[in-house]
Design goal:
This protein has 284 residues and is an alpha/beta fold. The protein has a single domain (8-283), classed as 3-Layer(aba) Sandwich (UDP-N-acetylmuramoyl-L-alanine:D-glutamate ligase). It has helices at 22-32, 61-74, 89-102, 131-141, 152-158, 170-182, 227-240, 245-263, and strands spanning 8-18, 36-47, 57-59, 80-83, 108-111, 116-117, 125-126, 147-148, 187-196, 199-206, 211-216. The strands form 2 sheets. A 9-stranded mixed β-sheet has the order 3-2-1-4-5-8-9-10-11, sandwiched between helices. A two-stranded antiparallel ribbon has the order 6-7. Helix 2 runs parallel beside helix 3. The longest helix has 19 residues, at 245-263. The structure holds 3-hydroxy-5-(hydroxymethyl)-2-methylisonicotinaldehyde. 3-hydroxy-5-(hydroxymethyl)-2-methylisonicotinaldehyde is lined by residues 14, 16, 21-22, 45, 48-50, 85, 114, 127, 226, 228-229.
């Protein structure tokens, strides 16, 4: 086995050249946290799919199978695996097989069930055409995770319920997190939860520690794109480095707040350009 000399994380996510999502966020974040990041791209895109038209999209399902087979052959040890955007239901199956084979090594599994996003009062944004395929695959996949990081839209999709029309109470959001933990994962962090007009929160539930909290993210009246991917990356890094779910989630929220503060210095930055997280990397 190729042991890890510093913590090593396999990052299964897309590589979108412009727009700051997925691998272009996760790899620098994990590196800044002193972790060896090993990218496994699910697709190569010119940009992410939000608001850009005519982006290029190269599905890497066949290549993923070969890359995973090679990693298995040389027997690379991973302290954690984190997964994000999947381009096909088959990719979820490949990732699930990989995850199952690594579980006996004590590898931490963090699954961000990337499916779509929806801001209260905004139109629904679902990232895929073949949503049903992916959703049923994702429902099974999250059962294998130690931690999952759905946004509220994805949490509702996984639990087969409509997106709430009203702000959720503490008790309602806690019940939702517990229900998701009931599917398998010990740690559930639900992002993009509006608790009232001016408060966006992350709900964190840790089944083993019997811990629940709502972390206030502050609120700015515009969306910030790519922050869900940042949250998943920082959480993965912090858990891999031994933090509790509570500490790791707070670290991720603090990092996103710093990136948003930096982004706000540039009023001409469009939403689809992402957030300026680069200057905050040194805080990690
Ligand atoms: O941030 C989620 C995400 C990941 N990957 C791709 C995306 C998006 C959201 O738009 O388009 C390709």
């Amino acid at each position: 086995m190729i042991k890890s000399f510093i913590p090593r994380v396999a990052v299964i996510n897309d590589l979108s050249g412009f727009g700051r999502v997925s691998l272009t966020e996760a790899c620098p974040i994990l590196s800044a946290m002193g972790i060896e990041a090993c990218p496994l791209p699910t697709a190569v895109l010119s940009t992410h799919t939000y608001k850009f038209e005519d982006y290029t999209f190269c599905d890497l399902t066949d290549e993923m199978e070969k890359i995973l087979a090679h990693w298995q052959k040389i027997d690379v040890h991973f302290d954690a695996i984190c997964t994000g955007y999947m381009a096909s239901a088959r990719q979820i199956e490949l990732a699930a097989d990989f995850v199952k084979s690594k579980k006996s090594e004590g590898t931490l599994i963090v699954i961000d069930p990337v499916l779509g996003d929806n801001v209260l009062s905004d139109a629904e944004t679902v990232y895929y055409d073949r949503m049903n395929d992916l959703l049923s695959g994702m429902k099974d996949f999250v059962k294998l995770a130690d931690a999952i990081t759905p946004n509220l839209t994805e949490a509702c999709l996984l639990l087969e319920r409509p997106y709430p029309q009203n702000y959720l109470t503490n008790e309602e959001i806690k019940a939702m997190a517990k229900e998701l933990a009931g599917l398998g994962p010990d740690i559930v962090a639900i992002t993009s939860v509006m608790t009232d007009k001016k408060h966006m929160c992350v709900a964190v539930y840790d089944k083993k520690a019997d811990f629940f909290d709502l972390l206030d993210c502050g609120y700015v009246d515009r969306p910030f794109h790519g922050t869900g991917d940042i949250f998943a990356a920082v959480l993965t890094g912090a858990l891999t480095n031994g933090m509790t779910a509570a500490e790791a989630s707070q670290k991720a929220v603090d990092f996103i707040k710093a990136a948003i503060a930096e982004t706000m210095k540039y009023p001409e930055m469009k939403i689809e350009y992402g957030v300026i997280f680069e200057k905050a990397l040194r805080e990690l």
